[in-house]
Hints:
- There is one protein chain.
- The protein is mainly α.
- The protein has one domain (about 1-95).
- The chain is built from five helices and two strands, in the order ββααααα.
- The chain has helices spanning about 15-25, 30-40, 45-60, 65-70, 75-90, and strands at about 1-5, 10.
- Strands 1-2 form a two-stranded antiparallel ribbon.
- Strand 1 (about 1-5) and strand 2 (about 10) form a beta hairpin.
- The chain is globular.
- The N and C termini lie close together (about 10 Å).
- The model has no long low-confidence stretch (mean pLDDT about 85).
Amino acid sequence: MELVIDGNPRVMKLTLGALAELEQALKVGSLVDLVQRFESGGFSAGDVLALIGAGLRGGGVAMTAVDLASAEIEGGPMQAAKTAAQLLARAFMAPDQS
């Protein structure tokens, strides 16, 4: 999955380590809770930033939360939220579904 940040296309993926990091950082009981948060529309901007940051690290891009918070994301906050939700959903798809 890709997101254009500061004019550069960045590849994102959620590794097992990134998923564990998300559980800790977002203080969710489980990743199912996080998925439900996104499905219900009850997610926060912090959730979106954490997901994108974890996805970037999983894709090999080291970007701090501060850098990401001040970065220009093509499509704005709505695109960032949509991409974060898709990234999370893809983490739970069977390989032949993605």
